[in-house]
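Notes from hallway chat w/ T.B., transcribed later so I don't forget. T.B. wanted the structure written out for a chain they're using in a teaching module, and asked if we could keep both sequence and structure tokens in one place. Agreed to drop them here.
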Amino acid sequence: MIKINLLEVEKERKAKPAAATGAFPTAIAAIAILGITALVFGALYFQISSKLSALEKDVAQKREKRKELEPFIKKVDELEKKRNDLAMKNNAIETLRSQRTIPVHLMDEISRALPEYLWLTELTLKGNTISIAGETLQDQAIPSFMSNMDSSEFIGTPSLIETKIKTAGGGSTAAQSSTTTFKITAPVTNPFKPKEEPTTTTTTTKKVKK
């Protein structure tokens, strides 16, 4: 004869619904988390898409504006180049004009710088250097002459190259007289030379990457 324990069957029947009831809230929570995650990613995607669309629109507008300004930018570049070329030509012309008058001014300045008892025997202008040779009856006249030249705006600081005692006269010592010969060099300056203007930077256009 088969015996069935009805109490055990009843316990199993009550335990199954309880287990099913505990699994239901977990499934709901998982679905809620997935839903929130999807909403967050959706919002981020929409935000990034909006920013990307705005950037693309801004780039397109700048490209159109650049196309409109290209003829004007090209014209400005051409005018700047012409202006720089003219400035260089004008500087060259002014330099040549000023150099024509330099020898005249040098002769005038040197004649003004000559002290007493000193005279010149040779004067040579080569490039931007002037070489002077002369004689004097008084040795102290040489530094005086150099100081006078140094104060001129056409002559730089002079340098004494050499000095020599030169004796002239009859055979007897009493009849002989001596002079001091000297050689001086000095750089020539040009106060009329135009100052160089700073080169104007040509306008450049930055290309937008496609």
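Follow-up for T.B.: The helical segments are 6-113, 141-150. Might be a good example for the class.
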